[in-house]
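User: Quick sanity check before I run a bigger batch. Here is a single chain. Can you write out its predicted 3D structure?
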Amino acid sequence: MQYRPDVDGLRAVAVLPVVLFHAGVPGFGGGFVGVDVFFVISGYLITGLIADEIRQGRFSVANFYERRIRRIVPALAVMLLVCSVVASVLLLPLDYAEFGRSVVAAALSFSNLFFWRQSGYFSDAAELKPLLHTWSLSVEEQFYIVLPLFLLAMAWLFRGRGAPRWTVAGVLVLLAGSFALSVVGLERHPDAVFYLMPTRAWELLLGSLLGLGAVPPPRRAWMAEAAGVLGLGLIGWAVFAFGRMTPFPGPNALVPCLGAALVIYAGTVSTGARAGRGGGLPLTSRLLARRGPVFVGLISYSLYLWHWPLLVFAHYTAFGPLEPAALAGVLALTAVVSVLSWRFVEKPFRTGPWLRGRRAFAQGAAALALFLAFGGWTIASGGWAARFDPQVSRVEALADSRNLDYVACKDRDAAHVLNGDLCTVGAADAAGEPWLIWGDSHVWAMLHLFDEAFRQAGARAIVASYDGCVPLFGLSRVHYQGPCRAIADSVDRLIVREGVRRVVMAAYWTGYYRDTQQVDDTVTGSGDGTTTAQVLNRGLMRTVDRLAARGIEVYVADPLPGARWNAPRALAAAAAWGRPIDPAYSLAEYQAMNRDFFQTVAALGGAVRGRLSLWTLLCDGGRCRTEDDGGLPLYFDTNHPARATFGFAQGPVTAFIRGGVSLAAAGAGLRDGGVVP
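Assistant: Done. Predicted structure follows.
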């Protein structure tokens, strides 16, 4: 294949939005689609090279992987080595051990599998994972294990019988299958669709079609011009119009991928068309082939490798958002390091004599062994906990203080609810109708408290909880994989079937009001100009009124205050670094965040028979405590109570269940909380 500077320029169009998106620069909410543009480019270039060599009868699997080692491994190995040194200075023990695991995953090219397995409702924020970005490299490397074998097999099976046509047909079949998997799996398994190679392969295969010459080059100048302009327009639309709430990849990934394919296609102008136009390329290709875009494209691999860990380490040290000056400094450092990496690592090893023949495989294996040993050591040493005071490890250990013996009670979907396949807590032999505890992950996190409370009260309760689903009738959470609406409908039927007379609604209400998008399915056009707060307020009133109209007593647990940052990590960092890191909210902040919820509950009046207002205890004194008297965190993340340190709540929870009365009247010494004027 001839070198195409416009394709290097297209790499710049791919990498810059990714960097700016990760840096949080306003306006680049869809910058993550640059990865998809990279996939199309890679599929085009690698497939074209392999196909050319197969046609010429000189393709060698060994030579192919030798080139991949020279292209990928040196810069990656240097980045991993430097990050390992920096991580040993900055990261807390649990994070350092996790970093070691991610180094092993990156070295073995299964980062995508590693981070997919880590994803989920309780996963750490992406901003705390220095090697998260290597998932896309793993997708490509896994693809390149399969691609050469597939192309060789097609060339051998159909030799002399139109092998190129059959190869294109085979690629089309694989592309269609991969895209179908991506579309079908997006709603129920979005993390798998995002990370796994089979659901991402279609993006690389789209480039493969161009590399195989499946589409004839444009024969007229206007066709090439239109393709280039439309292609850049599609990429730009995705970068500037998409955001974190956009379902992705799935059908939306077609926009940047088709855009990248059209830009590449525009530059494949046929010889006749070039001659007719004086040998010129379309405007988009000429712009992308200019020195600036080409240079950024040349350093794009190093730029991609370095930008994310530098941002992560900066955020980790600052323990919060970066100030504009600090962010500018990180981006400037990224540019400098990327240029140095390209000039003194990428170029020499790709074109020099150091990684040729068997030496490429031997030195690649040596690097792999080094990183495997490092990862094993970080895990075996407990994240090198000896670097810090023992208090750091004691605090961090609370991150694992969860209700693991109640795991079977959480995430019960609609089918389980309808079938009555649910946990029962409290006194198993209690007479009379059961209570129902309905809620989200906070129900699971506090279930040991409810279990003991119902046991002491001589009552029993059915538990219906699902992570991330607000316990309200008629609402749907937008872009969330949990079947929230179906669960609520099933709970409604469960209440009737089981003869439930008392319902406890417990959830992290703050999170739904602040961080989700909800739609009221019972009101036409509820998503048109209606805020999530309005939808939730209406849903809360409707749910309580519906239950109360049936003679069912409703009890509500107010949201816990939670912490500004992950409590175990913040308190451990404060102990390790010797500087104050206050994760606590003030009482005023807590009340402001929950004003809509409090006012709605207050408006319901006597329809709510009891309130569990633990915040009145936690926020006594004007600050909402995040640690106990021994300096141990009260939460195992930002808002879920840690089992080991939340025992103080047993008395109030028991009083709440026993009488459905205010905590003050129950003798807990607390005022009736929750109503904010």
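The chain has a mean pLDDT of 91.

User: Great, the batch can go ahead then.
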